């Protein structure tokens, strides 16, 4: 099966005062660069980042959700037009350890449309692997290109297997405290050490 990836990087960062979370650093690397490396290592051929161009040096395609800040579903809808693989990884760009999260995802079961991480049956939609054709079909019926829609609206009608995993694997950075606990920094100097 061929594999592409959608990375979601278009949020407002409201709980961190509007800071650009994908550019936060852990161990000297931006969260965005860590996500790109993780999906590339997992075998993704084409990587599409839904959000503003944050690092033109990254080997990715950039798309902007319509309208800007339209939410993760709008980002997925915009990015799907750029993909042609059989399956797609969908990943938020604020994960602490995207490589570990992806490695916990099993293959999509034959009788399912996708698989995502979860804990106690609660789905973590933004750490998932989905059949592109089915995801595209679900996206095509959403009003307003998925603007402000919940991921449940996009994926809730599909057959999604939930891979039970420790919450730490889908841990993300939503607040300054989260960044501090992860040992990260908001610095922009490439040489800065956390």
Secondary-structure map:
Elements: E1 3-8, E2 25-26, E3 29-30, H1 31-41, E4 47-50, E5 61-63, H2 72-80, E6 87-92, H3 98-103, E7 114-119, E8 122-131, H4 132-140, H5 151-155, E9 160-164, H6 176-181, E10 184-185
Parallel strand pairs: 1-4, 1-6, 4-5, 7-9
Antiparallel strand pairs: 2-3, 2-10, 6-8, 7-8
Would you give an account of this structure?
This protein has helices spanning 31-41, 72-80, 98-103, 132-140, 151-155, 176-181, and strands at residues 3-8, 25-26, 29-30, 47-50, 61-63, 87-92, 114-119, 122-131, 160-164, 184-185. The chain has 194 residues and is an alpha/beta fold. The N and C termini lie far apart (38 Å). Mean pLDDT is 90; it is low at 189-194.
Q: Radius of gyration from the CA trace? A: 16 Å
The share of residues in extended strands comes to 15-25%
pLDDT averaged residue by residue: 90
Shape: globular
Question: Which percent bin holds the helix content?
Answer: 10-25%
- Span of the ends, CA to CA: 38 Å
Number of strand segments: 10
Largest sheet: 7 strands, mixed
Which stretches are poorly predicted, pLDDT < 50 over at least 5 residues? 189-194
Sketch the topology as an H/E string, one letter per element.
Answer: EEEHEEHEHEEHHEHE
How many helix segments? 6
> Spatial order of the strands in the main sheet?
5-4-1-6-8-7-9
- The structural class is alpha/beta
Main attributes?
disordered C terminus; 24% strand; 3-stranded antiparallel sheet; 194 residues; alpha/beta; 6 helices
């Amino acid at each position: 099966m061929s594999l592409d990836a959608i990375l979601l990087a278009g949020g407002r960062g409201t709980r961190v005062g509007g800071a650009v979370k994908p550019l936060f650093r852990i161990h000297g690397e931006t969260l965005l660069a860590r996500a790109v490396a993780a999906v590339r290592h997992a075998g993704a051929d084409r990587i599409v980042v839904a959000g503003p161009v944050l690092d033109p040096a990254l080997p990715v395609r950039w798309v902007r959700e319509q309208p800007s800040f339209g939410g993760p579903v709008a980002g997925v809808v915009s990015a799907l037009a750029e993909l042609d693989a059989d399956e797609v990884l969908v990943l938020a760009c604020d994960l602490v350890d995207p490589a570990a999260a992806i490695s916990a995802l099993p293959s999509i079961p034959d009788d399912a449309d996708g698989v995502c991480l979860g804990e106690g049956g609660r789905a973590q939609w933004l750490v998932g692997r989905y059949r592109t054709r089915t995801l595209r079909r679900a996206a095509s019926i959403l009003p307003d290109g998925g603007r402000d829609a919940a991921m449940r609206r996009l994926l809730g009608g599909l057959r999604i297997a939930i891979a039970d995993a420790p919450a730490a694997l889908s841990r993300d950075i939503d607040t300054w405290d989260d960044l501090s606990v992860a040992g990260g920094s908001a610095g922009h100097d490439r040489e800065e050490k956390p």
